[in-house]
Amino acid sequence: MGKSPFDIADKTAIVTGGAMGIGFGIVRRFTEAGANVLIADLDGDRAESKAASVEGPGKAIGLTVDVSAEDAGRRLVDEAIASFGSVDILVNNAGIYPMQPMLDLPRESWQRVIDINLTGLAFVSKAAANQMIEQGSGGKIINIASIDALHPSMVGLAAYDSSKGGVLMFTRAFALEVAPHGVTVNAIAPGGISTEGTAAPLQGSGMTEEQMRAMTEQFAAAIPLRRMGEPDDIAKVTLFLASPASDYMTGELIVVDGGVLLS
After folding, report:
1. By the 8 A CB rule, do 15 and 40 touch?
2. Cα–Cα distance between 84 and 248 in angstroms, integer?
3. Number of C-alpha atoms within 13 angstroms, CB side, residue 109?
4. How far apart (Å, rounded) are the C-alpha atoms in residues 101 and 42?
5. H-assigned helices in 1-106
């Protein structure tokens, strides 16, 4: 049968927002599977530190990047080429989710969410896809969306939900555009995942640690699998989409939520 259909050895991946949470979970799975990874993050020091900590046959390097910057895509592609020689996989994971009701939301806060979660994702994808097309061997683009692209989870996330709905439609539209070049574009919709980032809004809410724990337990109780997700739950699905195992899939959304949308 030859190589495993999940083999990504010697491929080069870019993971945005890769220095913590879901992003770093993906980095670990990729390097474990033999890929070389550029960790792109607004916190460059953390990205470099996390890059130095990975284990596996694949290597990782860190780079300070704001994905909403106009030159972000070019910088990411240039660094990946200079360091590893190609761009084969892009994971658009970087995102923010400030919690504030739309009735109180300043225009600049709305725009910052859209700039990072949707516009930045689109133009980094454009840069990576152009490089993949130039290389002539196809490629994989994986967008981290959210179950909020399908159903709002709570009041206060109108900007986030709108951006993630846009990610889903961008995934489908761009998949159609680049399919003739052998580039696939798919998305993952995580449900509740326990990360440093998801804890931050609660820590700034004024709730006690006991109240935060009770809220998390209440949320987990509503999940059919009766637990919050972990970054590795998303990382393993991302590895599937990055590998030859998913070669005949494009424009698709995979929901990874413990069954919460069923309830």
Report:
1. yes
2. 26
3. 15
4. 26
5. 21-32, 44-53, 72-84
d(CA 177, CA 123): 14
Smallest CA-to-CA distance from 67 within 75, 79, 56 is with: 75
Count of beta carbons in the 10 Å neighbourhood of residue 103: 7
- Token pair of 207 as six digits: 């709730």
What is the helix, strand, coil percentage profile of the chain, to 5?
50, 15, 35
- What is the C-alpha separation between 69 and 120, in angstroms, rounded? 7
In angstroms, the CA 228 to CA 55 distance is: 26
First to last CA, the chain: 41
- Look at residue 207 in the predicted model and tell me its pLDDT: 67
| Residues 242 and 37: beta-carbon distance below 8 Å | no
The 10s digit of each residue's pLDDT in 84-111 is 999 999 999 999 999 999 999 999 999 9
pTM for the full predicted model: 0.93
Q: Per the structure block, which two tokens stand in for 182?
A: 């052998």
What is d(CA 220, CA 191) in angstroms, rounded to the nearest whole number?
11
* Four-CA torsion 75, 112, 95, 146, nearest 10 degrees: -130
Enumerate the active-site residues.
Answer: 146, 160, 164
Distances (CA, A) of 219 to 87, 99, 128: 39, 17, 37
Provide CB contacts within 8 A for 220, sequence distance 6+. Answer: 192, 226, 227, 228
Contact assessment for residue 250 and residue 175, using Cβ atoms and an 8 Å cutoff: yes
Residue with token string 């806060």: 109
Rounded-to-integer distance, Cα 105 and Cα 100, Å? 6
User: Could you count the other beta carbons within 10 Å of the beta carbon of residue 231?
Assistant: 22
